[in-house]
Write a structure and sequence with these properties.
This protein is α+β, with helices and mostly antiparallel strands. The chain has two domains: 37 residues; 108 residues, Immunoglobulin-like, CATH 2.60.40. It is built from one helix and nine strands; from the N terminus they run αβββββββββ. The strands form two sheets. Strands 2, 4, 5, 6, 8 and 9 form a six-stranded mixed β-sheet that branches. A three-stranded antiparallel β-sheet has the order 1-3-7, with no helix packed on it.
Length: 154
């Protein structure tokens, strides 16, 4: 009985610690003018889709491979300089590039540092685009955004 209580107590403590740390981090996001502080983009860095190529005809699931040059990949929540993690934008316009990227079916987060995904896509034409986000899912300044790629799923 004591062991279960201790395990639960440790879990609660860890969750509370992350919650407080996260809130403290969020409080420091806004500058003096109320704007969100953005992570500087490494000079000369670029993000791009390795696969599929623009105009490709593919079948589902589609292997989508992310490319990054001049910067490193780090998981969400890890604030290493000159790093970020990928966000895949599917069949929609880019989100505001001075705010955290939404997390939904059209804005896929790869906060674990993933560099590829096997994605189920419905038959038809789809537009894919990458945005590199910092440790808090905010695009860098200036934003690192790939060229859009259009694929047809048969």
């Amino acid at each position: 009985m004591t062991r279960n209580w201790m395990t639960t107590s440790i879990r609660v403590t860890v969750v509370l610690w992350f919650l407080v740390a996260g809130l403290a981090g969020l409080a420091g996001l806004a500058g003096a003018d109320g704007e969100l502080e953005r992570t500087p983009a490494p000079q000369g860095a670029s993000v791009y889709l390795i696969a599929p190529e623009d105009g490709a005809v593919v079948s589902s699931p589609v292997l989508i491979r992310f490319g990054l040059a001049g910067a490193g990949v780090a998981p969400a929540g890890v604030a290493n300089p000159k790093t970020g993690h990928h966000h895949l934008i599917i069949d929609t316009e880019l989100p505001p590039l001075d705010r955290p990227i939404p997390n939904d079916a059209q804005h896929r987060h790869f906060g674990g540092g993933q560099t590829e995904v096997l994605l189920e896509l419905e038959p038809g034409t789809h537009q894919l685009q990458l945005v590199l986000g910092d440790y808090l899912h905010i695009p860098h300044d200036p934003p690192l955004v790939s060229e859009p790629v259009t694929v047809t799923v048969e």
